Amino acid sequence: GSRLTAFELVHDKIPATLIADSAVAALMKDGRVDAVIVGADRIAAN
Question: Which has the closest alpha carbon to 9: 43, 41, 34?
Fold first, then answer.
């Protein structure tokens, strides 16, 4: 999950901060986000 991804990024010396998905828009608006990594557990065909 997201915590494992964040751990692996930091372990490999890649600066990373785990934030709630609901906070991304506000942080992007303030210019405080350089990149976003998202994932999905389930994807429906419809």
Answer: 34
Q: 16: exposed, middle or buried (C-beta count within 10 Å: 0-12, 13-18, 19+)?
A: middle
Q: How far apart are CA 18 and CA 23, in angstroms?
A: 10
For residue range 1-46, what is the model confidence (pLDDT) as tens digits?
788 888 999 999 999 999 888 898 899 999 998 888 887 778 888 8
Q: What is the pTM of this model?
A: 0.61
| Secondary structure (3-state) at 38 | coil
**Enzyme catalytic residues:** 41
